[in-house]
Amino acid sequence: MCLNDVGIMSVSYSAPDTIVTNNEIEQKFGIDKGLIKELTMIDERRIAGDEIAFSDLAVRAGKEAISAADISPSEIGVLVVATSSDDYYNPKSGAFLQRELGTDAFVLNIDQSCAGGIYAISTAAHLMLSKNKGKALVIAGDCDMRKVSGDSPFFIGSGGDACGAMVLGKLKKGKKGILSESFGTAGEYYENFGLYNYGSRVLESSKDGPTSYEQSADGNVILFKVLRWFKKSLKECLDAAGMLKEDVDFYSPHPAAVSQIKLQMKSIKVDIDKTNLVSSKFGHSGSGTHFIILNESINSKRLAAGDSVFMFGNGSGFLWGGMLINWCSLSDFERGA
Amino acid sequence: MIPDQRIPLDKIVPEMIRLIDQKEIYDYVGDAIDLTFSYEIVDCSYKFTLALKSGNLEFEESIDTNADVILKVKANDFHNMTLGKLNFMSIILGKKLKFVKGDLSDMIIIGGLPIDKYYANACKNLEVDYE
């Protein structure tokens, strides 16, 4: 069994019901009217109320993904949870989700910031291979918009809360799922962008509530770097799979502000129609957004079995990852654990 | 912000291009993206194009009709924008840019280039107010 033998059986997501418009954010934070739309090209986003935690969204998304894959929770051998917004500092959410979803899977919690979804898919696939498991559940998302201040109209306008889930399965002989992957880290940009709070580096007395949550030293250089990492990751994935960019049917670039997505597509000279700009309705929910894009694209028939998909995500640190995947139908997978 | 005055962009922009260290631009941008921006300076009939190609910044004193972005802007607004004295919020809300082609997402690229210091030095060389 190799990486090609692992495919995506189902993908789902859960987002809070509350829709927050640009107008509401602009009024709440004293931002000039119309600025958020101009900066981000996002119309609205989902933001969780104080009564909703990450695990609430994760349980719902996980149950839907298991149901859509038409499997029993007991078949799941690996559970990987990626988030930067666990319910508690400790314990992390994985064990709770294992219990609530009714699996006895091997559990791993990871935090790769906004790139967490891509890393979680890869990690789960590799764990399936090393542990000889037939199914894995990946849960990824973030739920921390309530902590973010309005100091940066771009940041507050781009974000949203949501969680995605995906079941990976072993494919029947002759079928291919994950075609290639490419990951990288550039630690020299550790201080360039992030949420520099609530860690052991930050003294309790220096916390100033949510207003000190964000820090961005030089966003410009990161923009150019993200485009370069996106192109590098795509090239490495295509080369490894023996494909050309024209062979890719659907792209899911780093799903932050729509303006950033458009630049990523422009950087590779691929038409914007080859992606689905769902960020304009959901915002960017950290590691969970790819799952929304894939689910919504399947539902709107923009993505179907047989299509090849390139996904890319980057996160503060800085780290990034890309995966090239052949989209499969449920009948392509082996049944049972 | 520098108040309205006659800004000789037809002299400043070529001087800025002369001063630019292309290696710095290349190291900063690399192969991130190729984009072409054409400017029509509405109050002095000056037209020029800045093209980011393979990490190099190219310059022509004309409009490229195939440019990714074509925009109209007043000389004083271009001057303040390039010097970083007119922030993004003021540019957007003050409707300082009129897009004939392209949109604001493209402007993130040109706005992100490290050219402000070269523009300031060009102004200094030509004795134009830049502080």
Brief synopsis:
Helices cover 32% and strands 22% of the residues of chain A.
What does this structure look like?
The complex is a heterodimer of chains A (337) and B (131). Chain A is of the alpha/beta class and 337 residues long. Chain A is 32% helix and 22% strand. In chain A, helix 3 (54-68) crosses helix 4 (94-101) and helix 7 packs across helix 8. By secondary structure, chain B is an alpha+beta fold. Chain B has one domain (9-125): Nonspecific Lipid-transfer Protein, Chain A, CATH 3.30.1050. Helices cover 40% and strands 22% of the residues of chain B. Chain B has helices at 9-19, 22-29, 75-82, 88-93, 104-112, 116-125; strands at residues 35-41, 46-53, 56-60, 69-73, 98-101. In chain B, helix 1 crosses helix 6 (116-125). The longest helix of chain B has 11 residues, at 9-19. Chain B is globular, with a radius of gyration of 14 Å. Chain A binds chain B through residues 32, 34-35, 38-39, 41, 153, 219-221, 223-225, 227-228, 231, 258-260, 262-263, 266-267, and chain B through 28-33, 35, 68, 88-89, 92-93, 104-106, 108-109, 111-112, 114.
